[in-house]
């Protein structure tokens, strides 16, 4: 029997679930416990198929729009990405029992947008078109109040109504480096532009990207565990590539690994997006351990101790 080739795995920390994702999943699980199934969830609670399927198995029913929900007194949960103002208004009009699982750091961006609007500023949102968080943030204000800028090129040609009355906010899950470039262009073109007091890109996104940028230059390949529709997971793959890692892959489960990409590697980095559970990381480590003589070392760049309060209705009396 041939000996397995040696492989050192550098496991990024922090990785995986953040406080906002943890809270959102808890809200669905506690609602199921307290009120019984079905609990309706508008949009994927977080962008992870494994999480969604495991909640479905417990009695959660996922819908894209409220009109898919029958007349009911059962809870209706809004996803961690946040929703446009029209969604809770429509739920109230139908007397639906709503539980808001929007990440508090997304809510912070919503509040910032409202303040800028009240102060008469046009708002630039740096983010990705079509992402539910962007749809929700733009939907806090009347049409035309928020202009979406996705790239440096778009920032270079953006034409505001009044360059002296301008503010920017950002999606919470962007690439820190890409966003800094876009902000630099906007600040150079519009010196009066007002930014957030504290960065909108959330601590979890920043910390996970920082860990990847530390590990990526040291390894032959990087595996990011996460969903293809997860913005923060996609950004981790890009950060690894930018840091000089030749092979960087985003996978949902270990069975998606293309083993031809890992021929002859000696060092592997593994991380996970903020909506990927640790059990899927363990699955990937086990898959490599079946083929290689694995040693695992943790590379930690930050400690995370943040936790968010649950909605009042779910707190234990």
Task: Walk me through the structure.
The strands form three sheets. The protein has a five-stranded parallel sheet, sandwiched between helices. Strands 3-2-4-5 form a four-stranded parallel sheet. Strands 7-6-8 form a three-stranded parallel sheet, with helices on both faces. It has three domains: 6-17 and 203-300, Cobalt-precorrin-4 Transmethylase, domain 1 (3-Layer(aba) Sandwich), CATH 3.40.1010.20; 19-103, 3-Layer(aba) Sandwich (Rossmann fold), CATH 3.40.50.11270; 105-189, 4-hydroxy-3-methylbut-2-enyl diphosphate reductase, catalytic domain (Cobalt-precorrin-4 Transmethylase, domain 1). Helices cover 36% and strands 20% of the residues. The protein is of the alpha/beta class and 317 residues long. The protein has helices spanning 19-35, 49-58, 86-93, 104-118, 132-138, 152-157, 176-189, 203-215, 231-242, 278-289, and strands at 6-13, 39-42, 60-63, 75-78, 97-100, 122-126, 146-149, 166-170, 221-225, 247-251, 267-272, 293-300. It contains ten helices and twelve strands.
């Amino acid at each position: 029997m041939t000996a397995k080739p040696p492989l050192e795995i550098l496991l990024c920390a922090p990785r995986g679930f953040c406080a906002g994702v943890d809270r959102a999943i808890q809200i669905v699980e506690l609602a199921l416990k307290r009120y019984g199934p079905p609990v309706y969830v508008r949009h994927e609670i977080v962008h992870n198929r494994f999480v969604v399927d495991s909640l479905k198995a417990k009695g959660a029913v996922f819908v894209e729009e409220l009109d898919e929900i029958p007349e009911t007194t059962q809870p209706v949960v809004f996803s961690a990405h946040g929703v446009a103002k029209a969604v809770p208004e429509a739920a109230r009009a139908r007397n639906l029992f709503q539980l808001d699982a929007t990440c508090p750091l997304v809510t912070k961006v919503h509040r910032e947008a409202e303040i800028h609007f009240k102060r008469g500023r046009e708002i630039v949102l740096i983010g990705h078109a079509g992402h539910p968080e962007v749809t929700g943030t733009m939907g806090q204000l009347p049409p035309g109040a928020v202009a979406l800028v996705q790239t440096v090129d778009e920032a270079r040609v953006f034409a505001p109504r009044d360059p002296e009355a301008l503010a920017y906010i950002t999606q919470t899950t962007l690439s820190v480096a890409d966003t800094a470039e876009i902000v630099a262009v906007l600040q150079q073109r519009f010196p009066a532009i007002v930014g957030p007091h504290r960065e909108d890109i959330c601590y979890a996104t920043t910390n996970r990207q920082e860990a990847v940028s530390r590990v990526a230059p040291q390894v032959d390949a990087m595996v990011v565990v996460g969903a293809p529709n997860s913005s923060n997971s996609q950004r981790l793959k890009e950060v690894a590539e930018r840091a000089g890692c030749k092979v960087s892959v985003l996978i949902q489960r270990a069975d998606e690994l293309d083993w031809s990409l890992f021929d002859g590697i000696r060092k592997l980095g593994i991380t996970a997006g903020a909506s990927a559970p640790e059990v899927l990381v363990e699955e990937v480590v086990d898959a490599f351990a079946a083929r290689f003589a694995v040693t695992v070392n943790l590379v930690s760049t930050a400690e995370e101790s943040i936790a968010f309060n649950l909605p009042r209705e779910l707190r234990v009396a």
